[in-house]
Structure formats: structure tokens, C-alpha cells
Amino acid sequence: MTVNAPTDHAVVALEHTASAIASARRAAAADRYAADALTVEWRAFGALESIVDEWRELAARALEANVFYEPDFALAAAAVFGPRCRRRAGLVGR
């Protein structure tokens, strides 16, 4: 059975507009978060002690609290991650 739906130019235009908006949003996000705008640093958990104050400030500004991202939890848990874990953290910043 073949169904022939009438072409509604308004619907087609709306679909193209939605696609253009989505494309523009992706481009804006790519400009805002360019790969070379971020730095990544790997540190051993023991070396994170020097940034605990900044880490706490960052965790306090989170929109949703998460105990797993708190320095007290993460540093205490590092000892039980297991011998196969390298006990390192990736720090991402601008």
C-alpha cells in the first residue's frame, strides 16, 4: 500500500529551520570548547594534596553535589582502588 501525503511547505520549512538551528548550536559549542582551549594534566593522587583547597571550592560550586568528586572521599578511596590501578587523576582546565 502506498500512502501519498500532501507536501506541506510549512512543515518542510520547519524541519529545515530546526536542522539549521541544531547545526548552529553544534558550531557554537565547538567554538566555545575548542580542543586546544583545554589542558589535561595527569597527577598521582598523592600530588593532589597541593590543590585540595581549590578542589573543595570547585566541588562547592557544582550544580548538583556529588560526594564522589569531593577531595576527602576521592583521596581516602585511592588507597583501596587496587594494585592494578595507577592511582592517577586527570585534571582538565582552561
Radius of gyration: 23 Å
Helix content: 40-55%
Fraction in beta strands: 5-15%
Quickly count the helices.
Answer: 3
| Gross morphology | elongated
Q: What's the number of extended β-strand segments?
A: 2
- Which segments are poorly predicted (pLDDT under 50) over 5 or more consecutive residues? none
Q: Give average pLDDT, whole number.
A: 76
Order of helices and strands: HEHHE
The N- and C-terminal alpha carbons lie at a distance of 58 Å
List the strand order in the largest sheet.
Answer: 1-2
Structural class: alpha+beta
Produce the secondary structure layout.
Layout: H1 9-32, E1 39-44, H2 52-60, H3 71-77, E2 88-93
Antiparallel strand pairs: 1-2
Kindly describe this structure:
With 94 residues, this protein is of the alpha+beta class. It has a domain at 36-93. The chain is built from three helices and two strands, in the order H-E-H-H-E. It has helices spanning 9-32, 52-60, 71-77; strands spanning 39-44, 88-93. Strands 1-2 form a two-stranded antiparallel sheet. The longest helix has 24 residues, at 9-32. The mean pLDDT is 76.
Task: Give a short synopsis of this structure.
By secondary structure, the chain is of the alpha+beta class. It has 3 helices and 2 strands, in the order αβααβ.
Features:
single chain, 94 residues, alpha+beta, two-stranded antiparallel ribbon, 3 helices, 2 strands, elongated
